[in-house]
Design a protein that fits this description.
Blueprint lengths: L2 E4 L5 H10 L1 E3 L9 H7 L5 E4 L7 H6 L6 E4 L9 H6 L3 E3 L6 H16 L2 H10 L18 E5 L3 H12 L3 E5 L6 H4 L3 E2 L3 H6 L3 E4 L13 H4 L6 E5 L8 H10 L2 E6 L10 H5 L3 E3 L8 H21 L8
Parallel strand pairs: 1-2, 1-3, 3-4, 4-5, 6-7, 6-9, 7-8, 9-10, 10-11, 11-12
Helix pairs in contact: 5-7
Bound molecules: glyoxylic acid.
The site of glyoxylic acid (GLV) has 7 residues, from loops.
Length: 317
């Protein structure tokens, strides 16, 4: 019977399914495994079902037992795994696309709304019960009629566009390549980030973390935005130079931020906690029951398909 290491606690029905299929090592206490522990625990395993909190870098990959043939990441993003080092070691890496598109797009809308309408400040005032309604109390920005820039027009970016249109926003986007007209669905394409940022009253970051997108929001590119723009990120923390962004926020050049993801999670730049106009969430993008069950099912299917055929359609390396 094949052996599978599961590095994160899954919902019970997904763990039960896996236990029927294979000899599984579950992580019942939801401990975050160190690299050495992950190497140790997977020694006699054929597969690893990993999560975004596992740093599976070149060092870890090279130390993995030769019995490990597949790393099935319980996420659509796979920036936590060195996929090149894995390929060199003949380990396939898979992800869970599609099933989390709607849940993540919903969180992206929450970030846009929370940042634009000053929800963090509002919640604080409401809890303190010392607020007074007045015409100029907590004035935010209206979505209707504003321009939404989407950085990365993949599945999630397009799902954000669809929802934002219902709020009356005009959609602009930048992507590695222009989409076909039917996928574009009326959105305006920009062939550079400078062009996109310069029309983004609100930006939604929905691109993958790659060496090219790391710190794509930085001191220089922050200057491209209109005065008082809003930046939201439901993808990965890697894309934002935190120091430069907090400075732009303090100066008022950026009106507000909406963030679900951070560099070095669960830590974040202290400026995000100190500044009132930052709407923060703890990486909840895919956190609905429906989506988490579907993600785990897909991660399990990926391993099953690989064990049966030696291939997997959700392979990313
Ligand atoms: C979550 O962040 C994912 O990439 O699935």
């Amino acid at each position: 019977m094949k052996k599978v290491l599961v590095t994160t606690k899954l919902l019970k029905l997904n763990e039960d399914r896996m236990s029927k299929l294979w000899n599984v090592k579950l992580n019942l206490n939801n401990e975050i495994y160190s690299q050495n522990k992950l190497i140790e625990l997977s020694k006699d395993c054929d597969a690893i079902l990993s999560s975004i909190v596992d740093k599976i870098d070149e060092f870890t990959i090279n130390k993995l037992s030769n019995s490990v043939k597949i790393i099935s990441n319980f996420a659509v993003g796979f920036g936590n795994i060195d996929i090149k080092a894995a390929k060199e070691k003949n380990i396939i890496v898979t992800n869970t696309p599609d099933v989390l598109t709607s849940a993540t797009a919903e969180i992206a809308m929450l970030l846009i709304l929370g940042a634009a309408r000053r929800a963090s400040e509002g919640i604080k005032w409401a809890r303190n019960k010392n607020w007074k309604w007045s015409a100029d109390f907590l004035i935010g920005k209206q979505l209707e009629g504003s321009r939404l820039g989407i950085l990365g027009m993949g599945r999630i970016g397009r799902a954000v566009a669809l929802r934002a249109k219902a709020f009356g926003m005009q959609i602009h986007y930048h992507n590695r390549s222009r989409l076909k007209t039917d996928l574009e669905a009326g959105a305006n394409y920009h062939d550079s980030i400078q062009s996109l940022f310069s029309v983004s009253d609100i930006l939604s970051i929905n691109c993958p973390a790659t060496p090219e997108t790391t710190n794509i929001i930085n001191k220089k590119t922050l200057k491209f935005f209109p005065e008082g723009a809003i930046i939201t990120n439901s993808a990965r923390g890697d894309m934002i130079d935190d120091e430069a962004t907090v400075k732009a926020l303090i100066s008022g050049r950026i009106f507000a931020l909406g963030l679900d993801v951070y560099k070095g999670e669960p830590n974040m730049h202290p400026g995000y906690l100190n500044q009132p106009n930052v709407f923060i969430l703890p990486h909840l993008g895919s956190a609905t029951k429906k989506t988490r069950i579907a993600m785990a099912d897909l991660a399990i299917n990926n391993i099953e398909e690989y064990f049966k055929t030696g291939h997997c359609k959700n392979m990313v390396n």
